[in-house]
Amino acid sequence: MEGKKSIGIQSKKEEDLSKWYEEVCLKSELVEFAKVKGFMVIRPRGYSIWEKIKENFEKIINKPLGVKNAYFPILIPESFFKKESEHAEGFTPEVAWIDKELTKDSERLAIRPTSETIMYNSYSRWIRSYKDLPLKINQWCNIVRWETKATRLFLRTREFLWQEGHNVYETDEECEKETIEIIKRYKKISEDLLGIPVLVGKKSEKEKFAGAKHTYTIEAFMPDGKALQCGTSHNLGQGFAKVFGISFLGRDEKKHFPFQNSWGLSTRLIGGVVMTHSDNSGLVLPPKVAENQLVIIPLIFKGKEKEVLKKSEEVFKSLKKFNPIMDNSEDYSPGYKFSEYELKGIPLRIEIGPRDLEKGVVTLVRRDTKEKSESKIKDLQKEVPKILERIQKDLFLKAKKRMEDSIIKVKTKEEFEEGMKNKKLIKMDWCGKTVCEEKIKDETGATTRCVTFEKKKISGNCPFCSEKAIEEMYFSRSY
RNA sequence: GGGGCUGUGGGGUAGCCUGGUAGCCUUUGACGUUUGGGACGUCACGACCCCGGUUCAAAUCCGGGCAGCCCCA
Q: What is the pTM for the complete model shown?
């Protein structure tokens, strides 16, 4: 029943999440460790998830908001990088520099930890008048941040893939409105495509992007009680425009500095999907991000194989749009194949054997619940999409319930500490002060996640510093 | 940043203390018998993380590096 140990997942999600997570990532062939610490090889099965995210992103964000894709260089001259002082200070500890002879005749070059500076240098030439605005540009690229903390597949690697959007607007209102619009669309991608429920809200002063006025975030909550920041949208105000000399002639024929935002989400989301949905049999993927939505396994018996194979072929052809895998190889027993495709996270399995054919049906097995059902062959066109939709929905609802059940509101330090011990996602009315935030981190290990957009009545004083509470903040440990 | 643990074919491991033929399970390839939850047989391929030291001899002992994991800050 347990299967062959060395092939399947050996750790248990509920016992050792971290080991289990690594095993799922590696054994489902999404990814492998690269030679250099903190780097990873994203294999085709993993990259296909990223491609689904990209497709969805283009549809949900770029097309409707009129954002164009472009590409800027990976190397940033030190002088660009240092122009905005808060930005430079924030990123300096994790910038990798090209420090070789290559650059001996010129200035040092940074490998991009984010591309504001190099993009805005171009923007300063591209933007002349209000007629050039809004300017909306996105790039898909890799980023290097030299992490000193422990690295983790997808969740924290020194190199990762992301998109970074950089928009420029005439007015503050326009800029702020779209900064929020984008974080809401990130939520949509996370929840509707990936089935990862998130909180949406505003980051604290301390946690905001270096150089931004303020930052909006989507925050997911992992089974071990740690939050995962899944995407951010920063209102940059006019700070970068001023130092990069981005200005435009306004409708009033006067010179103005425009308002900017930048926003990104990364391959970290893949880690979020794996951790959120997968189980002790391996990867579980929401159907919308699965490259192959189903696998057909004919159950081949001596003497009856012709009919089974013929029907399977028919079913295979009729379900082409789900990009099915057909495994009619005779090298493995059905049980082996079942485990194999469970490990790899194929959302739906169709078994076709002599017993089914006698009844004119096939057997359908959901990857997420392993629940079996039968469907008449002629009903498959209707039945398959219905089950896939149900899987998609159930995965999200299950994750959502888990997150909601983890949230507790606390009013005292003791309750806060108790909540941390129980791996809860804590919300608390607090003072909003950075010094207090640092103290809370020191004492409890928790960092601020965000203040959501919902209007809340705030009462009392901050349990940690006794000053007047001004907002309801979420706290937890984080990745 | 501090501390600890680990590294043997693709995966899981034995051997290391006490130096001397690298053993087992699994995977992979071929053939045959099988096939409703990781089938069986036969044959074959495949490994001591790297660099240095000690030694007649190093997977094993010593030093350094690299990589992964865990705990604490």
A: 0.95
